[in-house]
Design brief:
The protein is built from 23 helices and 15 strands. By secondary structure, it is mostly helical.
Length: 690
């Protein structure tokens, strides 16, 4: 028997005998998460030399969540708990969260319960920082360990803040094993204290992290990743829910720490927070390292002509010289390798790719998928027309052609459209024509062409997939009806749309040669920094001078940022996001009113980051969670024939929508009830106390 295994057996025997005794080991909780025997043995050798220490450090990173797993086993509720995505499936934690099926009693068994695992990361990082001096390392090696360990610890706190809000700050303390409960008694810090501490950790990390990461190390965070997370946190801290506005008062005015009566969430508005957020975003911009992902026009694969109201100057001053569809779509579908993507400030390989693609692909009896991971009508309607007009105010050049009364053939496309390698077949409903490029890169609508190019057997595609209850394959068209799966009647697009953001033309699940192109998931990308900068500047009424540590990590002298609501500065960076996808920039009317521009920016977030796990947090920080949920989930319903499908959008009539709940307590996840009971001063999140 191996030594390590023998220690595990001994440990299990001791735990079993102790747990049989009344009250034994009741002090074990999230602060005491390391295995006493395994770690005690390991610590005798971990700090002997650099190689062992680094192995241990990267082992700690394995405890962090898989950010790409936002649908199957998410570490936070994600897109399925928002108004942008939907599924009929009942085995998805995101949908179960909004159905009220996840609570403080059962969250311990869910992947979203990261409370204990993040404190395990923190504890291990504290061990490293307290004992790394014992290892024989060069100065460069010591700085590497120091930088990454602070990043790991900061990112653990970041995830705690995102899921639970205020958390317990343990500093450098390492809690002993198997003490009495009072030894672990700690109260939660306020939200602001937690954000400030987390940002301090990330600043310490940035001091030592490399500016550039080798391609072979794609997935490791760089200095820019630390700075970008700080920018995201500072923007969140400045937002209405956490910055003393009406949302903060209505939602958290009565939430006070039981030990001293201090408000967990600030009840006093501070405009300067927006200035700090703006400076944090500008610091990332000023690194001059990142830029929006673009693809040059390929003469062999013509792009869509630019609308007349879109500047044709070379990007980023206009949309000239780039293929606006491919510039967005190839950032996600795997055509651009993650390590080569200049927009990915921090990214990772897409985990569990095949399972994700199975749920997207239409339908399982023909093409090997389940076609049940849906986007909503609200998201579909949010996309602009090709010239930037709203669907309610479309132009003659790019009309929004939907039925006014009876549906006729005149409401459907008469010619096949082909641009940038993308195909819109004949017969597609007018609602889906003339839309902006991001729509076609993200939404699988009725009539979408599925290339499945890696498959060489015609019975498995390519197909134009139409969504209604027919289930035949006439010619080259596949009718992906409600009853297309004989084994599981929930395997159909409940909203009439599926998510195609990570689908490559080569992707196929069935047939000879079928293959899936590797995908890459953005943890944070440069477009978020640009929109965050515009959002923060838009909220400023005064001018501010903000000092931040220099972008040169080794230089401790601060850098000064002068920020104010400068319309030209807002437009300069916001418009890059628009031009990249072939849309016009902001007009003077858009810029004139702060409230109006704020709504434009919010809409841009929804479209640009569709199903990238940003909307769940955005609607909360903006204080509009209840407002966005009240509308319910809408879609285009499956009918018996071509015309029966195209009726006025209506609420999805599935159980997963009818039983959806709206409750302020869903803004933050509950702490596991067992942990709250063990720690006397640990307050539960509001609404989950009972």
């Amino acid at each position: 028997m191996k030594i390590g295994k023998s220690f595990k057996v001994l440990r299990n025997l001791l735990l079993a005998s102790c747990l049989a005794l009344p009250g034994a080991f009741t002090s074990c909780n999230f602060l005491e998460v390391d295995d006493l025997f395994d770690d005690t043995m390991k610590f005798d050798s971990i700090f002997v030399k650099y190689d062992y220490l680094v192995q241990y450090m990267w082992g700690v990173s394995d405890l962090l969540p898989d950010e790409s797993n936002v649908f199957r086993a998410p570490f936070n509720p994600g897109p399925l708990a928002t108004d942008e995505a939907f599924t009929n499936y009942t085995n998805k934690d995101g949908i179960n969260y909004v159905l009220g099926n996840i609570n403080a009693d059962n969250i311990s068994g869910k992947t979203m319960n990261i409370w204990p695992s993040m404190y395990q990361v923190i504890r291990k990082c504290n061990y490293i920082l307290s004992r790394k001096h014992e290892a024989k390392m060069t100065t460069v090696q010591d700085e590497e360990v120091t930088g990454y360990t602070h990043m790991l610890r900061g990112y653990a706190y970041y995830n705690l803040i995102q899921n639970y809000g205020p958390c317990i700050l343990v500093g450098d303390e390492i809690f002993p094993n198997n003490e009495q409960p009072e030894a672990y008694n700690r109260a939660r810090s306020t939200y602001d204290e937690c954000v400030d501490y987390c940002c301090e950790e990330l600043e310490k990390a940035a001091k030592y992290l490399p500016r550039d990461i080798a391609s072979s190390y794609f997935g490791r965070p760089s200095r820019g990743a630390a700075f970008a997370l700080i920018a995201r946190l500072r923007l969140q801290q400045a937002s209405p829910l956490y910055n003393g506005g009406n949302a903060a008062r209505i939602t958290y005015g009565d939430w006070k720490r039981s030990v001293d009566g201090v408000n967990y969430i600030s009840q006093t508005y501070d405009e300067r927070r927006w200035a700090v957020a703006a400076a944090a975003c500008k610091r990332v911009i000023d690194m001059n390292k990142y830029k929006l992902h673009t693809v040059s026009i390929d003469p062999m694969q013509p792009a869509r002509p630019l609308p007349s109201n879109v500047p044709d100057a070379n990007f980023p001053d206009g949309a000239g010289g780039i293929d606006c569809y491919r510039s967005y779509s190839e950032m996600f579908n795997g055509e651009t390798i993650g390590s080569k993507n200049t927009e990915f400030i921090w990214g990772r390989n897409f985990g569990d790719l095949r399972k994700h693609m199975e749920e997207v692909f239409p339908p399982n009896d023909i093409m090997g998928g389940y076609n049940g991971l849906c986007v909503t009508q609200k998201l579909v309607d949010a996309y602009y027309m090709a010239d930037g007009k709203d669907i309610k105010n479309s132009s003659k050049e790019y009309p929004y052609n939907i039925a006014q009364g009876t549906v006729t053939d005149d409401n459907f496309s008469k010619v096949k459209e082909n641009f940038s390698g993308y195909v819109i077949p004949i017969g597609v409903y007018g609602m889906y024509l003339n839309r902006e490029n991001r729509f076609y890169a993200t939404v699988g609508f009725s009539g979408r062409h599925w290339f499945v190019k890696s498959n060489t057997q015609s019975q498995y595609g390519p197909f134009n997939v139409w969504y209604h209850e027919m289930n035949t394959v006439p010619g080259s068209d596949l009718y992906a009806g409600k009853y297309s799966s004989v084994t599981n009647v929930i395997d159909y697009p409940g909203t009439g749309y599926v998510l195609t953001k990570w689908v490559h033309p080569m992707d196929a699940l069935k047939g000879t040669g079928s293959n899936l192109v590797a995908k890459y998931y953005p943890i944070i990308r440069y477009a978020e920094i640009l929109l965050g900068y515009a959002e923060a500047l838009n909220h400023l009424k005064a001018s501010y001078t903000i000092e931040l540590p220099a972008v040169n990590g080794g230089n401790l002298s601060p850098e000064t940022y002068n920020v104010s609501r400068d319309p030209s500065e807002i437009a300069k960076y916001f418009n890059q996001v628009r031009y990249r996808v072939g849309l016009p920039g902001l007009s003077s009317e858009d810029m004139a009113d702060e409230t109006n521009l704020d709504e434009i920016i919010k809409r841009e977030y929804m479209i640009e980051f569709a199903c990238e796990n940003r909307r769940y947090f955005d609607v909360r920080r903006w204080g509009i969670y209840e407002q966005t949920e009240k509308a319910g989930i809408y879609g285009m319903h499956l009918g018996e024939d071509k015309y029966g499908f195209y009726q006025t959008p209506a609420p999805v009539n599935q159980v997963n929508n009818r039983n959806r709940i709206i409750d302020k307590k869903l803004i933050l996840l509950p702490l596991p009830k067992a942990e709250v009971r063990r720690v006397q001063d640990l307050d539960q999140n509001p609404g989950w106390e009972n």
